[in-house]
Design a protein that fits this description.
Elements (H helix, E strand, L loop, with lengths): L9 H13 L3 H14 L4 H9 L17 H13 L3 H14 L4 H22 L16 H11 L4 H7 L4 H11 L5 H19 L3 H14 L4 H20 L1
Helix pairs in contact: 1-2, 2-3, 4-5, 5-6, 6-9, 10-11, 11-12
C-alpha cells in the first residue's frame, strides 16, 4: 500500500480542532476537520473526529474526483482481511469513503471493520480498572493528552469511550498503546523479578535489588512487595548519604 503524504497544515488543523472540541467550540472544531478533509479526502482521523462530533462525511466531501476501481479495491480489502491486516483494510475503506461519501455499502463495511478492531483492542486491554495510569508526560500527541485528561477525571473505561471527542476506536488505540493489563508472561517475569530482588536484598546487594524492583514496578507499580522494597531501598540510600 502506498504511503499517503499529507499536505502541510493538515496535522495542525486536526490538533486545532481537538483543542476547540475540548474547549466546547464544536462548530470551530468541525470547521477545522472539514478543512482537513478538503485537503486530504478520506483522512481517517478527520473522519473519526467528525463522526464522534455527529457530522457525516457525506455532508463534507461532495464532488470528489473520479471513482476508484471498486472491484480492485474490494479485492485489496479482502486480501487485507485474509492476512489479518485489519488496520490496512480500514484504511482502504476510508479511502473509498473519501471518494464515495454517499456509498452506504462502504459505510457499513467501515462500521463492521471498526467494530472488529475495537473488540480486538478491548481483549488486548483486559480490565483497564486494574491498570495503573502513568502520569502525563511532555511531548505526548494531542490525542493522548485528550484521553489522559478524561482518565484523570476518574472515568471508567466505558465512560472514557463515551466521553472521548476522538471517537471510540481512536480512543481504544490510544489506550492499547499506553495502558494494558499484564499478560501471563508479564506476571511470570514479575514473579521472577520479585524473587530475585528479595534474594539481592538478603545478600545486601542493594544496587542490584533496586534495579530488579524497578523493572518489576514497570510491570505492576502497585505490587505491595515491590512498593515496600523500593521505599525501603530509597530510605536506606538516603540514610547512607546522610551518614557520609
Amino acid at each position: 500500500m502506498s504511503v499517503r503524504i499529507e499536505p502541510p497544515g493538515v496535522a495542525q488543523l486536526l490538533e486545532d480542532g481537538l483543542e476547540k472540541r475540548v474547549a466546547g467550540d464544536l462548530a470551530g472544531a468541525v470547521a477545522c476537520w472539514k478543512r482537513a478533509l478538503e485537503l486530504v479526502p478520506g483522512h481517517p482521523a478527520a473522519l473519526d473526529y467528525l463522526e464522534a462530533a455527529g457530522a457525516r462525511a457525506s455532508q463534507l466531501d461532495e464532488g470528489e474526483p473520479a471513482r476508484i476501481d471498486t472491484v480492485r479495491l474490494k479485492k485489496k480489502v479482502v486480501d487485507a482481511v485474509r492476512g489479518r491486516r485489519y488496520e490496512d483494510a480500514l484504511t482502504l475503506l476510508y479511502e473509498a469513503q473519501g471518494r464515495h461519501p454517499d456509498d452506504e455499502e462502504v459505510h457499513r463495511s467501515i462500521r463492521h471493520m471498526k467494530n472488529h478492531i475495537e473488540r480486538r483492542l478491548l481483549e488486548q486491554l483486559g480490565d483497564l480498572d486494574r491498570v495503573v495510569h502513568p502520569p502525563p508526560a511532555a511531548g505526548l500527541d494531542a490525542e493522548v493528552q485528550v484521553v489522559l485528561r478524561i482518565l484523570r477525571a476518574g472515568h471508567s473505561l466505558g465512560d472514557t469511550l463515551a466521553a472521548s471527542p476522538i471517537g471510540r476506536l481512536r480512543t481504544l488505540r490510544v489506550l492499547a498503546r499506553y495502558f494494558r493489563a499484564p499478560t501471563q508472561a508479564d506476571r511470570a517475569r514479575l514473579d521472577t523479578l520479585v524473587d530475585d530482588g528479595i534474594e539481592a536484598v538478603l545478600a545486601h546487594d542493594h544496587a542490584r535489588a533496586r534495579k530488579l524492583f524497578q523493572a518489576a514496578a514497570a510491570i505492576d507499580p502497585e505490587h505491595p512487595v515491590v512498593r515496600t522494597n523500593l521505599q525501603r531501598l530509597a530510605q536506606l540510600a538516603k540514610s547512607t548519604e546522610e551518614n557520609d
